[in-house]
Amino acid sequence: MKNVFKKNDVALFFERIDKITPESQPKWGKMSADQMLAHCNVTYEYIFEDKYKKPRGFKRFLLKAFVKNAVVNEKKYPKNSRTAPDFIISDERNFQLEKDRLKNYMNRVLELGEDHFEGKESHSFGVLSKNEWNNMLAKHLEHHLEQFGV
Predict the structure, then answer these.
(1) pLDDT of residue 60
(2) Is residue 36 within a helix (H) or strand (E), and if so which, with residue range?
(3) Nearest in space to 136 (alpha carbons), one of 112, 148, 120
(4) Tens digit of each residue's pLDDT (9 = 90 or more) over 27-86
(5) Burial zone of 3 (CB within 10 Å; 0-12 exposed, 13-18 middle, 19+ buried)
(6) Distant-in-sequence, close-in-space partners of 28: CB < 8 Å, separation ≥ 6
(7) Residue 121 main-chain phi, psi, to 5 deg
(8) C-beta of residue 24 within 8 angstroms of C-beta of residue 36
(9) CA distance 99 to 36
(10) What is the Cα–Cα distance from 131 to 72, expressed in whole angstroms?
């Protein structure tokens, strides 16, 4: 698995992202390229923005008990797997803006480095290790880049 904390791996992700165009079509699923980029940005918005309500109580327990491992392990996501409501992008987005936002967020993670993320609390799953953060970020991005054939 690629590492979001390594400059060379991030550069490889950027090369693949740059191959996506507004006209790119998914191999599976219903999202357009602009929607996919916006969808990928939600993960980073959870980290860097305060625009989504954090799950509390029983909902948080369920996420930690039943969803967390599938998100932070190294096993690929299945095609057409379900997503959380915050990640559903149904409107048209500005392709270039979403692409730039994604790359900026990725650069921010790279600059902060893995030590910043070791023991950092996530929006939905509680405290994660730097490896869990990497798996979550890299795996999600890898899933959608494969979805768009790059």
Answers:
(1) 87
(2) helix 33-48
(3) 120
(4) 999 999 999 999 999 999 999 999 999 988 998 889 889 899 999 999 999 898 888 899
(5) middle
(6) 79, 80, 147
(7) -80, 135
(8) no
(9) 10
(10) 8
Amino acid at site 49? E
In angstroms, rounded to a whole number, what is the distance separating the alpha carbons of residues 86 and 20?
23
Distance CA 103, CA 113 (A): 15
Measured CA to CA, the distance from residue 82 to residue 79 in angstroms comes to 9
- Strands (DSSP E) along the chain, which ranges? 120-122, 126-128
pLDDT in tens, 76-92: 998 988 888 999 999 99
DSSP 73-108: SSSPPPTT----GGG---S---HHHHHHHHHHHHHH
Residue 142: what pLDDT? 98
- Predicted TM-score (pTM) of the model is 0.94
So what's the pLDDT on residue 81? Answer: 85
Distance CA 128, CA 114 (A): 11
pLDDT of residue 104: 98
- Name the nearest CA neighbour of 124 among 70, 66, 60: 60
